[in-house]
Amino acid sequence: MANESTGKGRPTPKRKISEAKRITSSLAPVVTKDQKRAAKVASRQERVASRTAYLRGDESALPARDRGLERRFVRNYVDSRRSIGEYFLPIIFVVLILTLIPKPAVQFAAIAVMYGVLLIAVIDGIFLSRKIRTLVSAKFPDAPTKGLGMYAWLRSTQMRRLRAPHPQRKVGDGVN
Question: Where are the bilayer-spanning segments (predicted)?
Fold first, then answer.
């Protein structure tokens, strides 16, 4: 057991002094409210510019999953065609409204349409995936095709307006 008669050799600091030291650390720079506000505005402008570049399709602003010539080719191929998957969400909305009608025949038909569209979208995705892998292998012989089919199918199931990066091709345009 330590000797209890010896103290620490200095008085305990007042709480006010301790909190002031903790708040204004010597390592942290002193920042005023105006500097914080300016930093917040600059950060927001940087985020907006980065998001705009991402939606435009600038290679430097894209995340790793969207980068590369192969991915750009896949996006352009998917955007140049129509698919049933991009209409799935609006169809689901119509089905939801139709299931509110108190007639079992209408409800059953609406749900059957929903499952039919889902099945067609999955089959379209399988064919799209195979086609994409073939086209990418022909255009970029050394590029790996792993994941490109799923990438294409997931993009084809998004509504055209909501795709990010935004489509750079119109429906019916050829893909180079």
Answer: 84-102, 108-129
Contact status, residue 163 vs residue 77, Cβ threshold 8 Å: no
For residue 71, give every residue at least 6 positions away whose Cβ sits within 8 Å of its Cβ, in sequence order, or none: 65, 148, 151
Closest by alpha carbon to 77, among 142, 158, 171, 145? 171
Q: Residue 7 falls within a domain, yes or no? A: no
Q: Are residues 125 and 42 in the same domain?
A: no
* Token pair 């490109």: residue: 148
Contact 87, 158 (CB under 8 A): no
pTM of this prediction exceeds 0.85: no
The per-residue pLDDT of the chain, averaged, comes to: 89
| Digit-coded pLDDT (tens) for 126-153 | 999 999 999 999 999 998 999 999 999 9
- The answer to whether residues 150 and 97 belong to one domain is yes
The domain of 106 spans 67-162
Question: Is 151 found in the same domain as 107?
Answer: yes
CA 98 from chain centre, in angstroms, equals 31
